[in-house]
Amino acid sequence: AAAAQAADHPHRPVTVAHRGASAYAPENTVAAVDAAHRMGVAWVENDVQRTKDGKLIVMHDTTLNRTTNVEELYPDRAPWKISDFTLGEIEKLDAGSWFDAKFKGERVPTLERYMDAVSHNDQKLLMELKSPELYPGIEAQILRQLKEEGWLDRQHVKHRLVLQSFNGDSVKKVHELRPALKTGFLGTPAIADLPKYAKFTDQINPSYKTIDMAYVSAVHAFQGAHGRPLEVYTWTVNDAPTAKKVASWGVDGIITNAPDVVRNALKDS
Ligand code: G3P
Ligand code: CA
Question: What is the pTM of this model?
């Protein structure tokens, strides 16, 4: 019965472009946001961290060397931690060439620049606080910036914005600072621990490799912080068979580098 119920799940999962449409453009750049937009994908996921001089930028790794030419420009600054570089230094980096020569000159976006692109495209944002334990106070700082960008109005808070983290304390802090905001916890808590998370989250967002249909159903049975069933957004699903499988489990969102692949896979579901 549980299987039939999940297979008949009335809602097709939402597709979220992971780090933007990162199979097609350099991750966490404006180019990746725009690539998702051209595919008609409303939701983008990003990762936010902080520079040495306290500015918020969008990048996944806590170091700059995988996704920029930092080693070339600053050879003596290993291990190239974001927190050891000023925004001025980071803005000199090329964040596109490593992916494909045609993206040469793409920059590491400030959060402000990134949000401008998302707003301009009328997209929605699943924002990750990446390694927030490295950046004390980043929760309040992000909320201040969201407010400045006009992203804490009713419309955005209700329909267009979710803040998530692997760091449960950080998610809890965001919820306490701004209770109206939707939040997600990245990970796969034991079912017995879900009531604890449900007090401050709306979503439980696990790797698809760690879950099954029973887990998704178990999460849905709890009410989240805003009184609706806890949702499941799973990552990172980049192929059609996996997309179909997790959709049949009843997940609410699929986070993917290749939103076109996921969308095509779910077309007839
Ligand atoms: O949004 C889910 C996913 O981004 C979590 O993993 O390492 O890509 O940030 P990671
Ligand atoms: Ca992420």
Answer: 0.95
Over residues 162-191, mean pLDDT: 98
Give the whole-angstrom CA distance, residue 248 versus residue 238.
16
Question: Which phi and psi angles does 49 have, rounded to 5°?
Answer: -140, -175
**Ligand 1, pocket-test mutation among 43, 166, 233, 236, most atoms within 8 A of CB:** 236
Residues lining ligand 1, Cβ inside 6 A: 18, 45, 47, 60, 128, 186, 205, 235, 255
* Tens digit of each residue's pLDDT (9 = 90 or more) over 81-92: 999 999 999 999
ipTM over 0.85: yes
Shortest-distance Cα residue to atom 4 of ligand 1 = 18
Q: Whose CA is nearest to atom 3 of ligand 1?
A: 235
Give the residue among 121, 177, 189, 120 at the shortest CA–CA distance from 152.
Answer: 177
Q: Work out the end-to-end distance of the chain between its first and last CA atoms, rounded to an integer number of angstroms.
A: 19
Buried/exposed code over 79-109 (b: 16+ C-beta within 10 A; e: otherwise): ebbbeebebebbbebbbbbbbeeebeebbbb
Q: Is residue 220 among the annotated active site residues? A: no
- Show the tokens assigned to 27: 């991750």
* CA 227 from centre of chain: 23
Number of domains comprising the chain: 1
Domain range for 205 is 2-266
Based on the residue annotation, tell me whether 60 is a catalytic residue of this protein.
yes
CATH number, domain of 206, equals 3.20.20.190
